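The instructor's notes for this session suggest beginning with a concrete chain rather than abstract definitions. Hand out the sequence below and ask the class to guess, before any prediction is shown, which regions might be ordered.
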Amino acid sequence: MPHSKQPSHFQSLMLLQWPLSYLAIFWILQPLFIYLLFTSLWPLPALYFAWLFLDWKTPERGGRRSAWVRNWCVWTHIRDYFPITILKTKDLSPEHNYLMGVHPHGLLTFGAFCNFCTEATGFSKTFPGITPHLATLSWFFKIPLVREYLMAKGVCSVSQPAIDYLLSHGTGNLVGIVVGGVGEALQSVPNTTTLILQKRKGFVRTALQHGAHLVPTFTFGETEVYDQVLFHKDSRMYKFQSCFRRIFGFYFCVFYGKGFRPGSTGLLPYSQPIVTVVGEPLPLPQIEKPSQEMVDKYHALYIDALHKLFDRHKTRYGCPETQKLVFL
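After discussion, reveal the predicted structure:
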């Protein structure tokens, strides 16, 4: 088992990345706001709901990022806890827009969060002139206050209108999509590199429609920070997980890491290095209505580029020479 370090006071903040925490916030805030409407404090929820109505489309129109939030000092503590770093292999020109594949999903996507949603690892200095946006589930932006928090970090909706907007308004935009999606979370166990990618081609079609360059990335260590309990597909627990996903959009994963006391088990992640390697951009032509053959062609080129990126760096970041990427 990975080596445990004595956790610090800030580590509970990492649980804010857990989708279930957003769900809990939703069920707490919804009745609270309704209750406040019938008290002397009714102007507060009334004004917020009015603001929410007027601001409803903002997550699909570029969002509302905050340099102040992205530079909170807590992000540097989270960075140092693992630690988390980013490696640039090629420059990204601000004259183009980019669609970035984020692999693997992992359980909580710590690497992508810290590298692209904060300035803890110095993204703006590493890629000057590039504005990163990490796409996540659309319904998160329907939760009061959570939507403000996500937009402040530069997170956008994974909906087609939101991505189309970013790739068609100006240049220098980098939209990151966790291509494997929530289904890949169930593949997140230590010492594995399994990606759900074979049939995921929508991001390639979108890139072709906008002439955006495809950027492969791979985050080494993402699947090493938690152990996960896997269930057989015929088990009741697996059926519950599938039902949960149909309702809420993500899996109810059973995982564990370390606790607050040395040697104990809990929900804190193991202190394992996480490194996001950003590969060389793959230029694509702009085709308003790309054929399936064209989509298949660039999808194959993307997989090949991702495969080469992984093989080139795997031994440097803890994978054995024999480790292979598995595509589902």
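Then share the key points. The chain has a mean pLDDT of 89. The chain has eleven helices and twelve strands.
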